[in-house]
Amino acid sequence: MLGQRLRSRFPLLIALLGLATAVLGYVFGLAHLQAAHAAFLGPSDLYGPRFIDVIVFGWCFWIGSSIGSFLNVVAWRMPRGESVNGRSYCPRCQTRLQARDNFPVFGWLMLGGRCRQCRLPISRRYPIVELVVGLSLTLIAIGQLYQLSLPYVTSRYGGGPLWQPIVDRYVLTTLFFHIYAVTISWAFALIRYDRNRIPARLVAWGIMPIILAMLVFPPLMIVSWRTLGDADLPSLFGSSLRIDAAIRIVTGLVAAAIIGRSLARGLCPRADLKLDPLGKSTARLVDVILIISVPGLIIGWQSVIALVVAASILAVLLQRFFLRQTDRLGSFAIAIPISLSVHLFAWWRLHDSPYWPSDTSQPMVVLAWAAIILLVPLWLKDAPEQPNLSGLAYADSTSDDDGEVDEDEAEVEAEVEAEVDRADDEEQEGGQRDETATA
Prior knowledge:
Order of helices and strands: HHHHHHHHHHHHH
Number of helices: 13
Number of domains: 2
Number of strands: 0
Radius of gyration: 25 Å
Strand content: under 5%
């Protein structure tokens, strides 16, 4: 029993050991490396700043992975019409999870990937989503707190050994706005990964706050809806930032609709909003537009063109090596928040690149990327629509589309049979002991 418990905790011990090694290596290793190139600083002077970096990263990752844990609940319950309130529970025996078991990533490792009550396997999707979402949101937070990512920042602090995070009202407001937007993008992606439709309730709670925030606080739009060619033209609507923000919102949504319609040739070729507005293929088209609308609102209509191209390539790679249980639209949906997180982190450098479309790009650059969009359906093509995978992804207990039983299903069946055999053996042993006692 003790050996089995140690084996189940082995992944947790490895993770903690690796984490401790990474922290010590960063704090002491980087401090010594930076001190070697600083004339008036020693390693001991830099332990504090580097330890602050670790605290900032750890705090951001804990918040981000907790959001990922909540997104697991959203993706599981919302398509079923269930409330997202209430504590998490085991998808097999419905036992409510304890607080320590629900700790992002490490809770699953501590349990050895099994429910504490029924001891049946819990899908690996839970910690994977928490880890990936946590890393993507942490990437955004580090980029903005350390003044690494946003364009049009007048003062960029740091670059030296005493580099510190900058926290003020504008930085926090912008960071929370981007974190919320990427969270909504992840929610859309996880639901579409299961081949479920994006619920209207999630769309209302996701898209509308982004639009209202940009209208109330226009600096959140970061970049203009204009391009270099018309930057010096007088505005037809005056100089109101809120009017510019409104146009920025409209252009972002229109760009999402146009790009989504272009991708429909590969992802949902039978979609027709006029002749078949309630069809499955049309519903997929609506989801494609919704998925693209989030980055369209956040980074503008110019940059979203290139982001979709990059995400389409990433989607092919993800499905080839990692996301084989979903369709091409599901892998594309997952690629969008990943690409958006990277774009937000590298926005400053991408914005300054003459080859990346932005509000300062030449019109020919934008047109060139728009032409590439027309080629995306050549590699971003989907097979005929399949049933949703939400039960398989979370509970690993649903048969595959081909009627065969996969490895996870076989593992679950073996576990159930083992539990039944163990119960029968204990019952027989109890009966033998009773007979002996009676004799």
